[in-house]
Design a protein that fits this description.
By secondary structure, the protein is mainly alpha-helical. The protein is 58% helix and 5% strand. The chain has one domain. The protein has 4 helices and 2 strands. A two-stranded antiparallel sheet has the order 1-2. Helix 2 crosses helix 3. The radius of gyration is 17 Å and the shape is elongated.
């Protein structure tokens, strides 16, 4: 029998499911953003958790949370840096 996982509030792996997003997922999307925009942005563990909390608080339950939500959250947070880099590149 597989392990039983407890999610809190009487929810567990025998009566519900949980989909987990982690700070590693945020960092994976940050790596993609850095690669796409030729940047070297970094986040602490707490800043990654801030992104996850913001995504959780603002997601549309009809669609859930996706990779795009994480990427867009990062893009929104670093929009100034991204646009400044793009503007600098245009001047070259």
């Amino acid at each position: 029998m597989p392990n039983k996982f407890y999610y809190g509030n009487d929810f567990n792996s025998e009566n519900s499911i949980a989909i987990i997003w982690s700070i590693d997922d945020v960092r994976d999307q940050l790596w993609i953003l850095n690669d796409n925009e030729d940047l070297k942005l970094t986040l602490t563990d707490e800043e990654c958790m801030d992104h996850l909390r913001c995504i959780l608080d603002n997601h549309d339950a009809n669609y859930g949370i996706t990779w795009e939500n994480i990427y867009q959250s990062l893009w929104d947070d670093f929009e100034e840096e991204i646009l400044l880099k793009r503007k600098t590149e245009e001047k070259k």
